[in-house]
Amino acid sequence: MKQLCRLRYEQEKAKHEIDYLKQQISIYQACSAFEHESISIASRLNDRQSCVETIQQARNQMVNDFLDNTNQQKQHTERQFQLEVKHLWTMEKNLSSSRKLTTTTMQHIVDKCLQNISEHVSCLYKFKSQQLKVKHINLHNYPLRFI
Roughly how many angstroms between the first and final C-alpha of the chain, as a whole number? Predict the structure, then answer.
């Protein structure tokens, strides 16, 4: 049961992490206009446009790779969770009738526990998402100015 709960936590965390990363990327792209302004000033001063473009491409590739890795992790945790559920119920079927936990009440308790874990992780990522928006608004209202 502990393993099942841990896997549910990891599964939910991976699912929400992808959404959070996508939100970070969209905010990053919205803020990039300000960044491009400072980069363009620097590139005019230093005539290093190709270097700046290479850095931007590398950064974009790193973000895409990180997002792909997170998607793979999500799929892996989903598979592990499903395997653990199958294992739990297979073990349950093989127990003697006096030791079996297969009752509607027990199934309800397991489902409720897993639901609580899902709600907990969802709440955490909702908070993280709100904090990210606040940080973006504050950055947008009080941008740094480069000379």
Answer: 59
